[in-house]
Amino acid sequence: MSTPLSPAPALRFGVNYTPRRGWFHAWHDFDPGRVREDLAQIAGLGLDHVRVFHLWPLLQPNRTLVRASAVDQLVRLVDLAAECGLDVLVDGVQGHLSSFDFYPEWTRSWHHRNVFTDPEAIEAQALLLRTLGRALSGHPHLIGLQLGNELNNLVAHNPVTVAEVDHYLDTLLAAARDGLGEGGGLVTHSAYDDAWYGDDHPFTPEASARKGDLTTVHPWVFSANCAGRYGPRSPQVHHLAEYGTELATAYATDPDRPVWVQETGAPEPHIPAADAPDFARATLLNAAGCDRLWGVTWWCSHDVDRALADFPELEYTLGLFDSTGRPKPIAEALSTTATEIRTTTAPPTPRTTALVLDCAPATRSVSGPGGAFFDTWTRLRQEGVRPAVVLAERAEDTAYLAARGITELIEGK
């Protein structure tokens, strides 16, 4: 008779909340009853947290004005989530959501200010984050405060250097911490995959992995055409979130720094609907094998209603629930797999073998889908190896390797 597996550490499983009625335009007509209904559906899947987004123009219509009523809406949503037993991460500067950019008018037209470099624009965002932090501080169901959703999506219209990004992030992280107070919750930031795979992108892997209280990754299967290149059922796709977690761990200076798979999903047609449940199950199970994993947060809770125009096609079908509120097969797959991991999966052991990554900032793409390093890592994974990732600059640091439990190094190709 086999010995039962011990429970895994308390991994977190949740979803990014998209209001079913009206998408994020619902903030214009905030309805607590509808929000409660959406959140109760999410809690019914056995998920434990949501990530939520207000809209920057509604929160801060003037550079020196943060609307108290809009902040109160956000606090009310956190309260409603708590009533459903859900913890909450709040994103502050939106910024960017589902292919749309949201700028307050004081950053546009002849008022234009570069949101990353203009000192007054940076201070305005710091004001917003301090205000949100103070309003939310002490809430027992608050996970923390994130600067905003994938702020690096805004670089096309706001040119910025690596040094300027570092200053921007440091300033806003300090403001968020000042608002929450010490012990008030996590302070984080997020970036889409160009930060990891994009040659010369001004948001760097080092910034993602070394600033804030933990590292967030958003391993989307359309990044670098991963699903198109390898196929929607491929090991490369099914292990992408696991790979992203290990890549992020390599860039951290703290070997114990947690990594949060904060966005991943099954976008059609990259992942056909019939394959979505298997993709969700494989993604969670493979990521759960990373010993630095904090948790996984799916994108997203509810489909975008097709009555709303001009979204990219894939945005309409990313939800766990359809636009009428019915759970989709992927919802059941996510729910049952999360329960299985929580209750029957053994805690992951450290990865003793690591693949050495040697890439200068201008050659980051080798570590992304289609790159030589990525292909070597996934080949090893298919052969039964559980490879970690180590930067070449740390390959001879015996204390660091020992702290991560690494005993064998393989040169990346």
From TrEMBL:
GO MF terms held by the record:
hydrolase activity
Taxonomically, which superkingdom? Bacteria
What keywords does the record list, in alphabetical order? Hydrolase
Q: Any idea what this protein is called?
A: Glycosyl hydrolase
Q: Which organism is it from?
A: Streptomyces phaeolivaceus
